[in-house]
Specification:
This protein has helices at residues 10-24, 30-43, 46-58, 60-68, 70-76, 110-113, 118-121, 123-131, 133-139, 176-180, 185-189, and strands spanning 87-91, 96-101, 149-154, 160-164. The protein is mostly helical and 200 residues long. The chain folds into 2 domains: 10-42, no CATH class; 44-189, Nitrile Hydratase, Chain A.
């Protein structure tokens, strides 16, 4: 008999097997799990953070509130909750670039960025971005002028950070929704830049 090939990775197969066993034993409710997954895929995540950034780009008063008290300003747009109780926004500017890490584990602002990417939780990223932020950013495709100051912010259980990337040039006439589409998850961590107009 020919061996059946699966498109799932070893980790995905193990997760599926564990989910099946836990469901059979009554430890998890598949419907509740589906609600949780849907929440993180559609109700929280980078789209929320992108809307916060876009608002900051078009509304100077909101930007000021965001930089002064990010938790309250973000809540104005309806984004709050666990892992986002104490937020600080830091803004990139010409000559200054911010990048976020959690050196101890994987503290991350779920309400505005969703679940952390695997690389964010990895030991190499957590240790290297503090020692060599310019080198790590280059590996992400972000090459900054030597004169640009790079500031690394360490998230903790008490405080989470959101980077406000620089607004791309040539976007003056765009709507807030169109601007939000230019904001990437990585640009709000600092390991990326906002997309240019027309960039996919």
């Amino acid at each position: 008999m020919e061996e059946e090939h699966s498109e799932l990775s070893n980790v995905e197969r193990r997760v599926r097997a564990l989910e099946t066993v836990m469901t059979q034993k009554g430890y998890i409710d598949p419907a509740a799990l589906d609600v949780l997954i849907d929440t993180y895929q559609t109700k929280v995540g980078p789209r929320n953070g992108a809307r916060v950034v876009a608002r900051a780009w078009v509304d100077p008063a909101f930007r000021e509130r965001l930089l002064r008290d990010a938790t309250a300003a973000i809540a104005e747009l309806g984004y709050s909750g666990r892992q986002g109780e104490h937020m600080i926004a830091v803004a990139n500017a010409p000559g200054r670039h911010n990048v976020v890490v959690c050196t101890l584990c994987s503290c991350y602002p779920w309400p505005v960025l969703g679940l952390p990417p695997v690389w964010y939780k990895s030991a190499p990223y957590r240790s290297r971005v503090v020692r060599d932020p310019r080198g790590v950013l280059a590996e992400f495709g972000v090459t900054l002028p030597a004169s640009t100051e790079i500031r690394v912010w360490d998230s903790t259980a008490e405080v989470r950070y959101l980077v406000i990337p620089e607004r791309p040039t040539g976007t003056e006439g765009l709507s807030e929704d169109a601007l939000a589409a230019l904001v990437t998850r990585d640009s709000m961590i600092g390991t990326g830049l906002a997309r240019a107009v027309g960039e996919t």
